[in-house]
Amino acid sequence: MTDLTRRLAALPAPRRAQFLARLREFAEAVAGRGPTPRGDTGPTPLSYAQQNLWFFDHPVPNGPASGTPLCLRLRGALDLDALRSALAAVVARHDTLRSQIVEREGGLMQVVATEVPVSLPVVEAEGDDHGQPLAAARALVVERAGEPFDLSRMPAWRAVLVRVAVDDHLFLFDVPTVLCDAPSRILLLRELAVFYRASESGDAAQPPGLPVQYGDYAIWQRGRLDSGELDQRAAYWRDKLAGVEVVEFPTDRPRAEVRTFAVAGGSFTVGHEAMERAGELARAVDASLSDVLVAAFFALLHRYCGVDDLVIGSPDAHLRPAAVASLIGLFTDLRVLRADVSGDPAFRELVQRVARVSAEAHEQGGLPLRTLTDVADPVVDPSRAPLFQIVFGVESTESTESTPGLPGIATSQEAVPAGTSPFDMRWTLTEQSAAGVDASLAITYNTGLFDAGSVARFARHYDALLHALTAAPDAPLSAAGMLSPAEREFLAQAAMGPVRPVRESTIVEEFEARVQEAPESVAVVVAGRETSYAELNARANRLAALLRERSVGPGARVGLCLRRSLDVVTAILAVLKAGAAYVPLDTTHPSGRVAEIAADAEVRVVLAHAEAGRAVSEVAVPVVVLDDVRGELAALPEGNPPLAAQPGDVAYVIYTSGSTGKPKGVLLEHRGVVNFTDSTRDLFDLTSADRVLGFASVTFDVSVFEIFSALLTGARLCLATDDERLSVDRLQSLMVQAGITVIDLPPTVLPLLAPEKFTALRIAFVGGEAFSGELVNRWNPGRRLFNGYGPTECTVTMIVEECQGTWDASPPIGLPMANHIAHVLDGDLRQVPVGVPGELVIGGAGLARGYLNREELNAEKFLADPFGTAPGGRLYRTGDLVKRLPDGRLVFLGRIDQQVKIRGLRIELGDVESALTGFEGIGPVSVQAWSDDSGDRHLVGYLTGVTAEHVPAVREHVRALLPSYMIPSFFVVLDELPLTSSGKVDRRRLPPPDLSRAGTATGTGGTPLTETERRLLRDVLVPLLHNERIGVHDDFFLAGGNSLKAVQLMSTIRRRFGVEIAPGEFFASPSAAHLAAAVDAAQAARSMRRVDDGDPLDAPADPPGPEAVRAPVVIRAAGPAQVVLLHPSGGELFCYVPLSRALGGEIGVTGFAADPRDADAAPAEAMAATAARIARSLVEGGLLASCCLAGWSYGGVLAFEVARQIEQKTGERPSVVLLDAAYDEDAEPLDEATVRRRFVHDVARLNGHDGPEVTAVLNDPDAGTADIRETLTGLGVELELTGQELARRFATFRSSALSQQEYRPPTPYGGPVTLVTAGPNPAMEEQWRAVCTGPFRAESVPGDHYTLFTAPALSRVVAAIEETLRA
């Protein structure tokens, strides 16, 4: 306690409070006075605003820098020399315009030149009349502004004068934003006008002097917060940004794999009425106008993205101290705003929420965004900026007041978009310049993601939404409309298919008409046997008569459980002729499920074949076995019975599986089938000459298309038998021999066929699931290919797209068919704009009557049409997610209830599946999200056509195509994907990843386990991991192992099997199978040595001498880049397994474990001696050009010393990555008790134990003297190590700790060094900066010293190492 604090503590409480208050006032006054001159123009660090912008602008070294282009149109007699002179004077006055940003040892610095050359080239615009040169001049300005900046050059800005005419010029002054923000441009213009006037008149301009420069400001700003305040603010943002999710704003194109920076801009207006009401609302709730406008923007994002948790960036223009009021520079910083829009609040409430968030963000500001990224730890995605991708800001009219003019020159600003930007979009709304004047809105957007038309639509919707929200601020957000009448009309028209009369007819009427027209034409072909229309009709009539005898009539339902034969078609027609509806039953389904469906459908009778007896064995109603009634049928009348069904009667009931697993029956009517058949006849130009393939199961509604598009058109139905459906060769042969002209096949079947063989095929109808553009390109040459969409609830298909030409991606599903409607709606059943995902809600002539006996579900899914557009007045909620393109077509995005989000990032499973299908030889694949026992979600890839041995290659294949967060965590190899009867992947039957298979039975390919494998599993791994189900091929670490357990495993193997397994064997494949093989090989080699040497005790070789070269352990095979890992204080390398696995596949990994000789050296000499042996090994082995040394804790210090010695001996300077490593951490010498306590703590943490009792060990006197094993046992740590092994491990730890304390780098190191700390650690950073003369970079990751190799820190560590290797 100092004298001052003692005196302060002695004061009475009121006096002390008064004194502290005055002290705070004084400190605030000093801070308010702002920076003071530093007295030189030497290099200075970047300001926080510069550092933040650089962070976004430069995700990779030498990335493009965004600019702030200023373009003036100057009309009049321009004095070119005076303009040049004025520009030179402004540049000479402001350091920022003479600055370059360079990488120095201390990080990024801005270096000011005393003077820079100021050139103003004049370019003549091309063109004959005045309009052409002006257009050419503007195009040239945009082209120049689009060029990237090189901030290491001097000057960093560029200027050009484009002559349109003798008295008309465009003046472009383009400066990097990191040196000059938008408000500073007004200052620049004012001074340019002052100096121009002075130069033109010959007077010496005398603007007020500048007391400080921007570098003074940067230094002052960095000194305002002490370390305690920085830590407090970091803690605030860690809490504030916890669980932050990416805002997935709908784009016109998919993102590239890495960020792109090319941008364009648009200028729009926001109506003055809305702006004035926004101001009134701001005053009413004691908020700023900016808060109201930002809240409206959050409402827009909510509408477009469909989520409640939203994050954007927003400029925070700090109030400039008076000393820098006249400075040009970057004073506008970016802050993070996270808003909660949940609960459908009133707009007034949302404004208040945003006002609180904004005030807190301002109060807790002053931290670099890199620090915020560290604490938030978002998923690393190279395709987008971290934290936020959209910026919305409000500028006052003061910063955009009328352009200062040059004397005698009509001066106006020209809008020029910046050429690059790190953000997806940046919105800048400028307040009204006067009452009754609209506000201006500028939007800069990434051209790789958005089209100009889309951005204009965003602006219109913001304007409309602001009008609606401010007009009724107490209404819920959902009540505010943003679509214009024209948009609503377009969406309504796009939702409607062509309209034509719906014929009031039935399937039976239409079929009998075809029979009447061509009775001898072939109707059905099955297994080569042809049946005419007349014969089919007669067979159906006889069976209908039998059904009537069995009390089947109008309104009844009949089950059909039949093999694929002529009887199926006959039975369908017979049921319909009896006036009943048919209910298809699958002959392969379990009898319980068949009985469940038959009971739910209340079928009157079931028609079956004899071989379906097992399937119908539990059905409670009469079963008519057709094989048994052939004679009875022959005696029944074959003439057409009276028409028994009406157009509105149910024709069939198809059961689909619901989300609960309980099947639900969909009721479809005759009228819908007739309308659908009429539509397909028109769409496909079907005639009686067509031959339609019957492939689909009758339990799937595509069979309705196949059967009735043929039979109601007079065409031929070629019904594939079960054998033909299940054999690609037979199916292909059938299609060729039958001359099939029309098919409707699922996308899982088409890739298996050879389209070039089907010369007669003219129509290929594909649907059920999304399919690739490559599939289209294979199948559409020489024929018409259609993508079809339609749930069972709307008669087969109701949206189609003809896929002509060449496709790069999956085609859209298209537009509604005749007499159908397809809306895209939000959760409140409102139309969503073009491009915005929403639920597909459909209706039309084919809409089902509903679900059988499911009134609650009917009320949920079938609803009255609120738009008055659907025939019949009803709509159906499909649960499918789609978006509408600007031309009205629809794109299928997936199921709403199956959206996948992993760690805050939404993932389109189709994108991952598409990447997997590119692997050579792979079959159909599926990717699903799976949750483990702790609730964490992972991606699982299901593969066919490959073996388990291919999985590593598959993983590397997708690693090259997808960002890391989209790569499946697990792969499951299957013989085939389980399919539903409709040919879709049956997701419910996909097995979970089997991480802990029963450790029994078999090894590779079903072979029995070897004796060593069995012993290793039963006696070693199961007890060690407490996992009874571990399998012989399971990965040790995925089955519950960690680095310390790996040490125990190797020790136990040594004791149990009498052999030493090289660490490299473990790293090659840490599975029981591989380790058992290594044990067997080692034992065989030992036996051979015994025979050769005659040594029954198998005495070990002599220990290596003190100068013996140490060989590194190969953790992962060498690649073009190499990471060398140095052991931590525990001496082993197993802690690095997560790191080695996470590094890119092209990176080889080796490591050096502790050598027993290290513990014999004196602490003061040990580090240098250990490093010398390792350095010698590396030098003699040859260092790769791309190589880095890395180490955690003690290993980092050792890596530094190894690199330093290599530099001393060879001049080479390998990169070094220090992972939370420091030397000389303790002020006092380490005693034995402290070392023992730290060893216990280290072992406990490495074994996965944490908590107060573990931390308390560090300060427990008893732990410093007690038996180490007993202390560990008390903490719940059971070690499978002998006393000798534990003592040896402690000796290594002790030697490492003491040598780490004694070590001082003898000389600085000149190579590149990266320091990664667990949390901010300025002391550690400062320690290393002092001994590094080469490039030095420091960053912190979330977590503590022992969590560096677990998520979320691991991804950051990997990124640091990979970036070091690239550099």
Named CATH topology of the domain at 507-745: Rossmann fold
CATH level-four homologous superfamily name of the domain at 507-745 = ANL, N-terminal domain
How far apart the termini lie comes to: 49 Å
Total of DSSP H or I helical runs spanning 4+ residues? 40
- Fraction of helical residues: 25-40%
Please mark out the parts with pLDDT under 50 across 5 or more consecutive residues, or reply none. Answer: 996-1007, 1090-1109
Number-wise, the strands total 47
Helix/strand/pairing category: alpha/beta
CATH class of the domain at 507-745: Alpha Beta
User: Strand order of the main beta sheet, please?
Assistant: 41-43-42-44-45-46-47
Shape: globular
Named CATH architecture of the domain at 507-745: 3-Layer(aba) Sandwich
Largest sheet properties? 7 strands, mixed
| Rg (CA only) | 38 Å
**Residue fraction in strands:** 15-25%
Average predicted confidence as pLDDT: 85
Structure characterization notes:
One of its GO terms (cellular component) is cytoplasm. InterPro entries: AA_adenyl_dom (IPR010071), AB_hydrolase_fold (IPR029058), ACP-like_sf (IPR036736), AMP-bd_C (IPR025110), AMP-bd_C_sf (IPR045851), AMP-binding_CS (IPR020845), AMP-dep_synth/lig_dom (IPR000873), CAT-like_dom_sf (IPR023213). Pfam families: AMP-binding, AMP-binding_C, Condensation, PP-binding, Thioesterase. The protein is an alpha/beta fold and 1367 residues long. Among the domains are: 3-33, no CATH class; 44-220, Chloramphenicol acetyltransferase-like domain (Chloramphenicol Acetyltransferase, 2-Layer Sandwich); 507-745, ANL, N-terminal domain (Rossmann fold, 3-Layer(aba) Sandwich); 899-993, ANL, C-terminal domain (GMP Synthetase, Chain A, domain 3, 2-Layer Sandwich), CATH 3.30.300; 1004-1093, Orthogonal Bundle (Non-ribosomal Peptide Synthetase Peptidyl Carrier Protein, Chain A), CATH 1.10.1200; 1109-1223 and 1306-1367, 3-Layer(aba) Sandwich (Rossmann fold), CATH 3.40.50; 1225-1302. 36% of the residues lie in helices and 19% in strands. The protein contains 40 helices and 47 strands. A seven-stranded mixed sheet has the order 41-43-42-44-45-46-47, with helices on both faces. A five-stranded mixed sheet has the order 5-6-7-2-12, covered by helices on one side. Helix 10 (289-305) packs across helix 13 and helix 33 packs across helix 38 (1283-1302). The longest helix has 22 residues, at 1072-1093. It starts with a helix and ends with a helix. The model is unreliable at 996-1007 and 1090-1109 (pLDDT under 50).
